[in-house]
Predict the structure.
Amino acid sequence: MEKQLHNLYDNLNKKYFNNTLPKSSEMTIEWSGRLTASAGICYRKPKNSIIRLSTHYHEDFPEDIENTLLHEMIHLKVKGHGPEFKKEINRIISLGGKVNRFSKRRATEKRINWIYKCKICSKEYERNRKISKLSRYRCGICKGKLEEIKV
Ligand SMILES: [Zn+2]
Ligand SMILES: [Zn+2]
């Protein structure tokens, strides 16, 4: 399943981005059973960016896999869903691609701007606001220190 996602990513990268996005071998692209708030999510990082697609969402809308993946791939270039994002959408549509600004369950999409990841057990805590005094916080599971990732 993950291999299929990597292949699809490679094809879309070639077809719509001239291979200007990171190679799939330098990415984590995976299904997530925990992701229920949105169809997909993209964590852009200097190295090893992550794209996760919701298993739940695509059980209901299997025809949207390419659409969601393209959407998250745009987030590797553009943050948020503003004018720059709209431009990318139009560019891809003009090349014959299918991609939407919002998934069909937009209403339940959670706004996540920050991820706090435990340095020990890797549990991720999603927040819409930045935690100002991070050193005061610890992982709820193992009491490990948290690492901050801007989404
Ligand atoms: Zn988005
Ligand atoms: Zn932990």
